[in-house]
Amino acid sequence: MKRSTGVIGVVVVLGVAYMGATWYVGKQAQVTVERVVAQANERVIKMLGADMGADNLRIEINDYQRGWFASDVSYTLFMKDEDGTPLELKLHDKLQHGPLPASAVAAGDFMPMLAHSQAQLRPTPATQKWFDSQNGKSPLNIETRVGFGGTGRSVWTFSPAELVEDGEKISFSGGVVEMNFTNDFNDNTAAGQVASFSVTNEQTGENLLIKNIQANSKTTMSNQSDVSTQSNATVQSLAIDSPAGRAVVLEELSMAVDSQQKGKLLDGTLRYDFGRIAIGEIDLGSVSVGASARQLDVDALTDLATTYDKIVAREGISADEELVLTDAEEAVMREKLVAMLASSPSISIDPLVWKNAHGESKTGLQVDLASPDNSQEQRTDVLLAEILKRVKLDLSISKPMLIQALGQVQNDPQQAQQMQVLGAMIYDQYVARLSGAGLIVAEGDTASTAILYENDKVDLNGQAMSVPEFLQRAMSAVM
């Protein structure tokens, strides 16, 4: 009797201790959730600016009902579509408290954790048709294991869906995104995949089909102001088909983004690769293009863009209208531009390469900028001379590649041959004229040029000259 009483006492003590631990962990889970949400909003504001971030993208905790073993949490993601129309996405989260959440234990996970989250999308006007396609079930389910010490793992599962909106049928295979968090949720890796996505206009028969989308990203933060991000995405094929025209097919697409932000300065590179581009029977070959920016003041650039958008909104200018600035508006824009140039940013295309079966052509451009000594200078040529610190252009054109591309424009073999002959004549004519002016160098079937502007001087294919002399040569060649 005494032994059984002792066992019962131990069980009671352990039960009370676990209940106390669960209550404490539940309280810490709430603190962590609120902090992570605030942190996410701060990063959006830092990236987009105070006005853009608060207005265009933010997340709020609408309700947090904390119980002893679990909590019910409601979130709303506020955003805007491409037309500026406000959209709301709502999530409901059933948050099981650690250290051994019942839902995680039931799933076979006995590792201690802060919380086990099982969230679902809730219907809003923006997502109602998506819900309807699932017969009222949530099309998005999010399972997150929140560990101790700022670690976690989240899996987002998107259900397959078919729906019709504004005369377009959308078919989605479903997909999965997996994310892992470390370093107090500041560092993360993510990987996602979607088998297919298509949009068909039921009236015109036009169709967009994307197959095998895969994406990966990695973000690390050394402190609150230094962030490094590497992302890449690949698509097996993208096809745009229409009964009235030839299909456009892009194969083996890839995109890569690499950025490092230290304080307010950003270094970044962006690259797109298209393994094959085809229009009907025309094979245009492959295209690769890269772009980069160095020493870019993100805050100043955001301020410049925001100021411009406010002026456009105030004037009620549409996209196809020319904006005419008042003297006061021009002064403000000039001030914002000078502030952005203070960091001496550099932008470049490095390079653009077009290949087909007969050769390749490529171009590269680098522009180093600087803040003008006299920002009130009214003459455009003087102001540009101070802003453009260094400009380097490299261009190479392959005659066989160009002729092959022009010949493919025509389906008829005879017309294709005529187009190739015409292309060869035009190429030879312009190469002769530009070579005579010293603007290009012709070697075999390749025409190239290398132009460097620096310190108010121009180096043209290895020959130094003044800016007026270069402009005179250029004008003589095109007249």
UniProtKB/TrEMBL annotation:
Membrane-crossing residue ranges in chain numbering: 7-26
Highest taxon listed in the record's lineage: Bacteria
InterPro entries xref list: DUF945
A Pfam family that the UniProt record links to this protein: DUF945
Keywords, alphabetical: Membrane, Transmembrane, Transmembrane helix
Protein name: DUF945 domain-containing protein
Natural source organism: Pollutimonas nitritireducens
